[in-house]
Each structure stands twice: as structure tokens, then as C-alpha cells.
């Protein structure tokens, strides 16, 4: 099991939304695709009147900001997360919305009856799950016949490869989480999901980072420390390395590899 899906590391990372907010900030501020990931995702989602929607691993519920009131008539939205802190944050944000519920739950043991939801969403969280087959069996169990499962994830290239190369330049003897592959990624996702769903469509979101403030990247790295083997003191040399790139090229260009699987 990699450091990314050890239960204690996941709980530490997401006990509240502080780390997640730092990561969201980096992408919101420096992404080159100005459409934004969340608007793109909502173009892909298909909701209808009376739709029952479940999001697993909802985090701080950022993607639903200003969108819950716009759902079709009589929709029911359930936002769930393993972290009690995240669920509390979501309640505080959206408790005034009707047809909304937030609860703490584990994707590996969902507290819902069979065939309960029309749509289930699991974004950037399946690679944290210790027992992925058990989790996907649970998703299939609570999804209605003919329902849709949306799962966004990253690829094993993009930002991870860029950061791994940076660590090798600056700290050649330091092992980092960026050298490990995601257990669920764009490359293997279709094969994994096809075991549970009849049709699996992959949609790629074209994007990259153009970072003009080196400290934003260092803050992002700090937010990942509890799932990595490096420590905060390793970041001083990395700041110098990235800052030299920024001064030389005017910007730190980092590729991204991310997308969405649509399963029915």
C-alpha cells in the first residue's frame, strides 16, 4: 500500500479543509485553462428532475458552490466524506439549501440501501481507498440500474513527473511520493471500472500550470507533507531551484494530466 492510501495518512491530510484549500488555490490561481475544472465537470454531469445524487469524498464541497439551487426540481443531493471535519465544513456552507444532506461515510461500507441513487460522483479520491474492489462494489450496489457513476482522477504523468524530476535534481537521494503511481489513474481507470460497469468513457481535461509566484508552489508542497517522505526543511533548496526557473523563464510551467470517467 502506498503512502497515498494508508488510512492514517488520508485522515491526517483531510481532517479539515486546510490542505485541500491550499491545493485548490494553486490551481485556481495558475491554471492555463480558464474555463476551470468545476465548470467543465458540470458540463459532463447529467442531472434531471427528481434525480438522487451522491458525492463520495466530497471534501469541502467546493464544486457545489452556487450550484445546489440550480439543480433540477426535486433533486436530492447527499455529500459524504470519510472526514468528520470535511462534513462539518460542508454543513456550514450549505445547510441553508433545500434537498441537501451531508454525512460521514466510508465508500467501502456505504450506509444506503441497494439501488438508491441515479448519479454517484467520486472525484480525486479513489486512489486513496485501501480496498478499491470493495469500494466499487459498494458504488455499484447503491447505484440504480441505468444510473451513472462519474470518477475524476489524475494520470501518472503531468505534475507528478515534473515534481519527481525536480526532487531528483535537488535531493537525488530522497524518496518521495511523487515517484509512486496512483492506484487508480487515467491510464488504468477504464480497465478497473469495466469490471463493474457496462460502458466506461474517458474524457480528458486539457490544462497546465503557469506559476508566477514560487511560494504558491512551495505552499502546495507543504500541504502534501503528511503523505510524503520529505520534510519541510527539504523545501528551502526546492524554493531556490523553482525560483531560478521563474526568474529565467518568467513562469514555472507544469503540465497537468487529469480527466473524468463516465460509467453506466
Describe the protein's architecture and organization:
The protein is α/β, with parallel strands linked by helices and 264 residues long. Helices cover 34% and strands 20% of the residues. The protein has nine helices and nine strands. It has a seven-stranded mixed sheet with strand order 3-2-1-4-5-9-6. It has a single domain (7-156, 180-208, 256-263), classed as Vaccinia Virus protein VP39 (Rossmann fold). Helix 2 (18-30) packs antiparallel against helix 8 (214-222) and helix 8 (214-222) runs antiparallel to helix 9 (235-249). The model has no long low-confidence stretch (mean pLDDT 93). The chain has helices at residues 7-13, 18-30, 37-44, 84-94, 132-142, 159-170, 189-193, 214-222, 235-249, and strands spanning 52-56, 76-81, 100-104, 117-122, 143-154, 200-205, 208-211, 252-255, 258-263. The longest helix is centred in the last third of the chain and has 15 residues, at 235-249. Strand 2 (76-81), helix 4 and strand 3 form a beta-alpha-beta unit.
Task: Offer a concise description of the structure.
This protein has helices spanning 7-13, 18-30, 37-44, 84-94, 132-142, 159-170, 189-193, 214-222, 235-249, and strands at residues 52-56, 76-81, 100-104, 117-122, 143-154, 200-205, 208-211, 252-255, 258-263. The protein has 264 residues and is α/β, with parallel strands linked by helices. The mean pLDDT is 93.
Amino acid at each position: 500500500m502506498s503512502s497515498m492510501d494508508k488510512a492514517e495518512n488520508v485522515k491526517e491530510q483531510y481532517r479539515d479543509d486546510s490542505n485541500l484549500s491550499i491545493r485548490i488555490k494553486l490551481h485556481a490561481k495558475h491554471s492555463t485553462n480558464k474555463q476551470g475544472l468545476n465548470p467543465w465537470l458540470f458540463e459532463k454531469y447529467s442531472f434531471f428532475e427528481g434525480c438522487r445524487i451522491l458525492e463520495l469524498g466530497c471534501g469541502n464541497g467546493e464544486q457545489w458552490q452556487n450550484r445546489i439551487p440550480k439543480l433540477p426540481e426535486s433533486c436530492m443531493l447527499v455529500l459524504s466524506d470519510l472526514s468528520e471535519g470535511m462534513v462539518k465544513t460542508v454543513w456550514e456552507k450549505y445547510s441553508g439549501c433545500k434537498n441537501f444532506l451531508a454525512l460521514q461515510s466510508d465508500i467501502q461500507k456505504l450506509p444506503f440501501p441497494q439501488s438508491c441513487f441515479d448519479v454517484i460522483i467520486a472525484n480525486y479520491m479513489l486512489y486513496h481507498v485501501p480496498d478499491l474492489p470493495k469500494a466499487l462494489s459498494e458504488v455499484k450496489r447503491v447505484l440504480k440500474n441505468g444510473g451513472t457513476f462519474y470518477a475524476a482522477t489524475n494520470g501518472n504523468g503531468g505534475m507528478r513527473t515534473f515534481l519527481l524530476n525536480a526532487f531528483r535534481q535537488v535531493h537525488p537521494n530522497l524518496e518521495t511520493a511523487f515517484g509512486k503511481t496512483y492506484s487508480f489513474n487515467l491510464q488504468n481507470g477504464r480497465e478497473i471500472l469495466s469490471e463493474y460497469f457496462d460502458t466506461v468513457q474517458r474524457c480528458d481535461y486539457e490544462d497546465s500550470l503557469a506559476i508566477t509566484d514560487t511560494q504558491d508552489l512551495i505552499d502546495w508542497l507543504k500541504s502534501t507533507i503528511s503523505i510524503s517522505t520529505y520534510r519541510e526543511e527539504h523545501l528551502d533548496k526546492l524554493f531556490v531551484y523553482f525560483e531560478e526557473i521563474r526568474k529565467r523563464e518568467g513562469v514555472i510551467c507544469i503540465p497537468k494530466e487529469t480527466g473524468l470517467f463516465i460509467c453506466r
